[in-house]
UniProtKB/TrEMBL annotation:
<dbReference type="InterPro" id="IPR050086">
    <property type="entry name" value="MetN_ABC_transporter-like"/>
</dbReference>
<dbReference type="InterPro" id="IPR003593">
    <property type="entry name" value="AAA+_ATPase"/>
</dbReference>
<dbReference type="InterPro" id="IPR017871">
    <property type="entry name" value="ABC_transporter-like_CS"/>
</dbReference>
<dbReference type="InterPro" id="IPR003439">
    <property type="entry name" value="ABC_transporter-like_ATP-bd"/>
</dbReference>
<dbReference type="GO" id="GO:0005524">
    <property type="term" value="F:ATP binding"/>
</dbReference>
<keyword id="KW-0067">ATP-binding</keyword>
<feature type="domain" description="ABC transporter">
    <location>
        <begin position="2"/>
        <end position="234"/>
    </location>
</feature>
<protein>
    <submittedName>
        <fullName>Arginine ABC transporter ATP-binding protein</fullName>
    </submittedName>
</protein>
<keyword id="KW-0813">Transport</keyword>
<keyword id="KW-0547">Nucleotide-binding</keyword>
<dbReference type="InterPro" id="IPR027417">
    <property type="entry name" value="P-loop_NTPase"/>
</dbReference>
<dbReference type="InterPro" id="IPR030679">
    <property type="entry name" value="ABC_ATPase_HisP-typ"/>
</dbReference>
<dbReference type="Pfam" id="PF00005">
    <property type="entry name" value="ABC_tran"/>
</dbReference>
Amino acid sequence: MIKVNQLSKTFKKTPVLNNITTEINKKEVVAVIGPSGSGKSTFLRCLNGLEQPSEGQVYIDGTQLNEQNVTQIREKTGMVFQHFHLFPHMTVLQNITFAPMETHGTSKEEAEENAMKLLETVGLSDKATSYPNQLSGGQKQRVAIARALAMHPEIMLFDEPTSALDPEMVKEVLDVMKQLASTGMTMVIVTHEMAFAREVADRIIFLDQGAVVEETTPLQFFNTPSTERAQSFLQKVL
Ligand code: ADP
Ligand code: MG
């Protein structure tokens, strides 16, 4: 579903991603883990064309991302950010129906019907007419997930979706993500939630200083990390 070939990214001569090669298969859930500043967000942004590689290629469904097709290919990916990025002046329902109506030409009726189904999935049927500032952080993030899903993405990218949440709201968001994983969605998740990564991910990619230092099963990564860098990272976070 995603193929990354010798991807490097440099910002003004500062190397941020260093020669990353990996593949993410359909229905796979991959957790990207690593210290702050290791390039996790940049990696994710390269996967949907929010950043251009300095070197190397990203392929989505066999098509190489380039400047011409980026908008089209990006529609195959949904992205969820740490800080939600909901439209503050729109209701929950409008947040979810806006993009399908604008970019897919979906009718209002159909977009709203689909939005209500998605709100049910994320447990927020009663919030359709609320505005984002009337919601808790966990509720906002669940709306953001529903909004991304409304575009029928083939891949969902999550960049620290629970890092801005109060602790008691983390679980409600992780539960929605877990449920999404169980439907067979292809997911790439940057997270500091180690228990979640261990339970839900099929594979862990451990990034340090812009390079893939370990890429393995959760079992192996958490129980017997093979590099000193992963060991020392895990000692700090576990
Ligand atoms: P992470 O998500 O793992 O914390 P990032 O991908 O956000 O790491 O950042 C990796 C490095 O790249 C950091 O040193 C950051 O300062 C730098 N960086 C990220 N985005 C930019 C940018 N647009 N311009 C310059 N430097 C950037
Ligand atoms: Mg980041």
